[in-house]
């Protein structure tokens, strides 16, 4: 089959959607399919990074789109980048041969609509892989007014493409419920989480000690937030907790990654002169095992308004490593569901957004217990979300979608 993958990010970018789409492309090629990827020629977090406009990599035909790379400092910059991506993607898609299936992720927003229009004209199935829901996310973040003309127009466009999809991939039950409320049929929705990177990472004791030594963390109890820093994952209460616990000499907060809120964390640490906070950029895949293994307690944060809109995919790598985590978010959410599935409350802790005292209490309890051995129950739960289980299953869903065309 000819399969097109459409998303802003792809290899060698390191953001989560790029990594998952790269995994899927490899699996599709392994299964004998002809894979074309259309993505941006610039790095997601660092637009100064430039990738080849056209290349064949491991049997994957990659077509990359030029954008001005204005960055995320202002909303208008994002809108211009998105608009130019859309325009250049349209040009590329119309000159590509007919595809049996087009798999559309959700960056830039509503890109599945473009895939749907092209498929309607040329034929073939469309499978939106909903990594986040827009304009729902923009409304939840306060960027768009709910019920306004822009929001209603974008929602109409989004729902039009969803109703014409052969399959829709939702990441959890809350997202599936939102999709059905938008008119998507339950029989079209396939619910599966994005897999862990267990094929590439695992608990690394040597890498843990090397990473901690490199960054001055030897002997510290490390509380880590690793991944995308965005308004969907509000960190204000975590930063307030770090400020309150600044006198705990054994305790150190480590923020690793990037995103629009990363500089906010850096600025807070500098303004408050907090010596118990360190900020590091995204770590390359070859160092990711050591980086994630360096934590004694991982943080997973979900804003109350974003349940069913975004998904806490970082939690699967944490489970795979068997390291305790603290989920900060609403009780009715996927992260809280997973924490409840662990029989040991010290392994999967829960606190509410804005509850600084509760967050401090959970961290202090973990600090008192000290570093924990790798937890077999967490790893067993993580195995349900492994690459070897979920990636082949998604390939089968895509193959079934082609048969429906």
From TrEMBL:
This is Glycosyltransferase family 4 protein. It comes from Prosthecobacter fluviatilis. Gene3D superfamilies: Glycogen Phosphorylase B. Residues 18-190 form the Glycosyltransferase subfamily 4-like N-terminal domain. It comes from the Bacteria. The lineage of its organism: Bacteria, Pseudomonadati, Verrucomicrobiota, Verrucomicrobiia, Verrucomicrobiales.
